[in-house]
Specification:
With about 240 residues, the protein is α/β, with parallel strands linked by helices. The longest helix is centred in the middle third of the chain and has 14 residues.
Amino acid sequence: MSSNKIAVISDIHSNLSALKAVLSDIHNKGVKRIFCLGDLVGYYTKPIPTIHLCIARCEVVIKGNHDNSAALGEIPEYYRSDSFRPIEFTNQSLTIHERKILHSLPLMHTEDYKDVNRRVMFIHGGPEYPLDQYIYSDNSDQIEECFEFMELIGLNGLFMGHTHIPFKIEKNGNLICNPGSVGQPRDGDSRASYVIYDSEIHSIEFHRVPYDPTSTIDGINKHQFSTELGERLLVGK
């Protein structure tokens, strides 16, 4: 098993079925190190087992905006309306133990690969607002600002989640990557998304994992969440 390979996952959102499928796929590929870019909770109905499974299996777990809200017991007014009920459900479900776990998660993590003179950062949102900045690949100004940030602090790689849309952009040998979402893809592909990063050759492989969303959708119906949340799982939007 190669220690230079890292599986990068993000935006689980309490979709335990999708998480288990991705973790199984990562295991089958022989990758031992897993980094999570945050948003363990929100939208779906298995927050507690999702939190504990992520903490148990991931070497690094970054704090996402939904994790932060759950840790504080808040429901920000600017969130999507279909997220209000799930966030309320999450807030009511978590014990003080899970809140402490989420509260203690770091906003970012940096890996220094001195043998290959490479430095890579992992965050949930964007460089300016690590918790809650949306960075899209088709926004050239945003992408250029990210590369400027990387140059400023000496980064060769920047991994970000939050948008649920996977992408990779390379410039002068430096990489910006979003691994997409495990629990709620929004790029038109309903399969769970993640990437494998090879630090030795500075390369990224995208992977999609099919899974059965039935139990997740059953949870939506049982707890009277918006039906749109189940529909989004079926179409990846």
